[in-house]
Design brief:
Blueprint (H helix, E strand, L loop, with lengths): L1 H10 L2 H11 L4 H20 L5 H25 L4 H23 L1 H32 L29 H18 L5 H14 L2 H17 L5 H18 L1 H8 L4 H20 L9 H4 L4 H4 L16 H9 L1 H12 L7 H13 L10
Length: about 375
C-alpha cells in the first residue's frame, strides 16, 4: 500500500497538485512532488535495503555541473531568464535519472511491489476517467479533479474529461504510463487492464494516448507466440477496428481539421521553428520564448489567449529546449531521452519519444 501510494503521488497526482496550486497559490509543480520523492527514497533505504549504482553519483555530478554552466552561460549571453522554472526543469530531469537508476538496480526487490501497485493505480485512474465522462454526459458536470480554465482556451469545447489529471492530454500520458507498467510486470494478464485502458483513452480523447495504445497493442499481439501469424494479424485487425470505433469522433475532427488541439500543435511547431531560426545557436534564454515568438492573432485567437498563457511555448519539448537553450538544448534533450533507453523494454523509450514530441513540458509526471 505504501509503495502504491508513493508511486501514485509521484507519477499520477498532477490533477491533485494543480488543484493545490490553485488553492494555496504556491506555484511550482516540483515543490509538491520533490518532498514525496525524498521521503519515499528514505523509506526504501531504511526498510527495503535498496542500493544505487556507483555511476549514478558521477552522472548526477556531471549533469548538475552542466546545468550550472548552462545557467551562467544564459545569464551572460541573454541576460535575465526564468530562474525558478529553469531550476524546476533541472530538478525534474535529475529526479528522472534517480528513479531510472533505482528501478534498474533494485528490480528484484521492487518488481513485486510495483506489479501490485501499478495495477491498482491503473484501475483507479481508468475508472475515474470513465466515471467522470459518464457524469459529464448525463448530468453535464465535469467532476475531474482539476478543470482547465477554458477562458484561456477559447477554441476548446469542454466536452472531454481529464479524470484525475490536469487536462485530457496529460490523462492520456498517465493512462499510457500505467498500462505500460502493467504490460511489463503482468504480460500474461492483460485483457481487463487493456479494455479499461482503451475505454479511458476513448473518453479523454487523448491523441497521444491513442498513438501509444496502438503501438503497445500492436507490439503485444505481434510478439505473442500463441496462434499463427494470420491469427495474430486478425486479432490486431479486430483491435484496430475497436480503436477506430472508440475514437471515430476525434479522428473525424482531426481529419476534417476541426480539432483545435491538433491544429494548435501544428501551428505551435511553425512558431517554434521561426524562433529557432532567429536565435540559434544561443537560444532565447529560458523563459524568454514569448519575447521572440510571433503568435498571429488571426490564427491563435481561436486557440489560446496568449496574454493569459504567459509561459506557453510550443507543444513539442525538443523544439522548446532548442528554442530557449540553443545548441545546449539539443544536448539536454539527448541526455534526457537517453536516460530512458533500454534494450529489454523498448516500449519505454518509444513512449518517452512520443511524449517528447507531443508535450511541450518536461514537468510531465508520466516520465517518472
Amino acid at each position: 500500500m505504501i509503495h502504491a501510494l508513493a508511486w501514485f503521488l509521484i507519477g499520477y497526482s498532477d490533477g491533485l497538485v494543480y488543484w493545490l496550486i490553485n488553492l494555496t497559490e504556491i506555484t511550482g509543480y516540483m515543490v509538491y512532488i520533490t518532498p514525496v520523492i525524498i521521503i519515499y527514497i528514505i523509506y526504501l533505504f531504511m526498510f527495503c535495503k535498496i542500493s544505487l549504482s556507483t555511476s549514478l553519483a558521477r552522472r548526477q555530478i556531471f549533469f548538475i555541473s552542466f546545468a550550472i554552466a548552462l545557467f551562467f552561460f544564459q545569464i551572460f549571453s541573454v541576460g535575465e531568464i526564468y530562474t525558478v522554472g529553469y531550476i524546476q526543469v533541472i530538478v525534474m530531469i535529475g529526479v528522472s535519472f534517480l528513479i531510472t537508476d533505482l528501478f534498474k538496480e533494485n528490480e528484484i526487490i521492487l518488481r513485486h511491489h510495483f506489479a501490485n501497485g501499478i495495477i491498482t493505480i491503473h484501475y483507479i485512474i481508468c475508472f475515474y476517467a470513465i466515471f467522470s465522462w459518464i457524469i459529464l454526459r448525463v448530468v453535464g458536470e465535469d467532476i475531474s479533479l482539476y478543470i482547465v480554465d477554458f477562458d484561456t482556451l477559447s477554441g476548446f469545447a469542454a466536452n472531454r474529461t481529464s479524470g484525475l489529471h490536469r487536462e485530457p492530454s496529460w490523462a492520456g500520458y498517465a493512462l499510457a504510463s500505467s498500462y505500460l507498467g502493467v504490460l511489463i510486470t503482468r504480460p500474461n494478464r492483460l485483457w481487463l487492464p487493456q479494455i479499461a485502458y482503451l475505454l479511458a483513452i476513448g473518453v479523454t480523447g487523448a491523441g497521444a494516448g491513442l498513438i501509444m495504445a496502438c503501438v503497445f497493442i500492436a507490439q503485444q499481439v505481434l510478439i505473442n507466440r500463441r496462434g499463427n501469424l494470420v491469427l495474430r494479424l486478425g486479432v490486431l485487425a479486430v483491435l484496430g477496428l475497436l480503436v477506430l470505433v472508440v475514437f471515430s469522433g476525434r479522428i473525424s475532427e482531426v481529419l476534417n481539421q476541426n480539432d483545435p488541439s491538433s491544429q494548435m500543435r501544428l501551428e505551435s511547431t511553425t512558431v517554434a521553428a521561426e524562433v529557432i531560426a532567429e536565435t540559434f545557436p544561443i537560444g532565447t534564454g529560458f523563459g524568454n520564448y514569448q519575447d521572440h515568438a510571433i503568435f498571429d492573432p488571426t490564427i491563435w485567437g481561436g486557440f489560446l489567449d496568449i496574454s493569459e498563457a504567459t509561459y506557453y511555448k510550443s507543444d513539442v519539448l525538443a523544439l522548446n529546449f532548442i528554442a530557449e537553450l540553443g545548441f545546449f538544448g539539443i544536448v539536454l534533450t539527448i541526455l534526457f531521452i537517453m536516460n530512458f533507453s533500454s534494450r529489454s523494454n523498448v516500449l519505454v523509450f518509444v513512449a518517452v519519444m512520443i511524449i517528447v514530441l507531443t508535450s511541450g513540458t518536461v514537468i510531465q509526471p508520466a516520465y517518472l
